């Protein structure tokens, strides 16, 4: 990943979080139950 090479970890985290939320919402719409596999808690 290109983001992993950057020194700015806050920027990397924000981008990865955005991608994670997009993927999570897409899977939710597709009917995948994420409650058992969701390990990222805020």
In words, what does this structure look like?
Helices cover 50% and strands 0% of the residues. By secondary structure, it is an all-alpha fold. It is elongated and about 35 Å long. It starts with 8 loop residues before the first helix and ends in a 13-residue tail after the last helix.
Nutshell version of this structure?
The chain is an all-alpha fold and 42 residues long. 50% of the residues lie in helices and 0% in strands. The protein is built from one helix and no strands.
Keywords summarizing the entry:
single chain, 42 residues, mainly alpha
Q: Radius of gyration, Cα only, in angstroms?
A: 12 Å
The coarse overall form would be elongated
| Main sheet: strands, sense, barrel | none
Instruction: Identify low-pLDDT runs.
Output: none
State the end-to-end CA separation: 24 Å
Compressed to H and E, one letter per element, the order equals H
Relative strand content: under 5%
Compute the number of strand runs. Answer: 0
- Counting structural domains, the number is 1
Overall pLDDT metric: 77
Compute the number of helices: 1
Structural class: mainly alpha
Strand and helix layout:
Blueprint: H1 9-29
């Amino acid at each position: 990943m290109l983001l992993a090479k950057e020194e700015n970890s806050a920027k990397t985290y924000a981008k990865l979080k955005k991608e994670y939320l997009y993927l999570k919402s897409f899977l939710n719409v597709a009917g995948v139950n994420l409650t058992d596999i969701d390990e990222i808690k805020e």
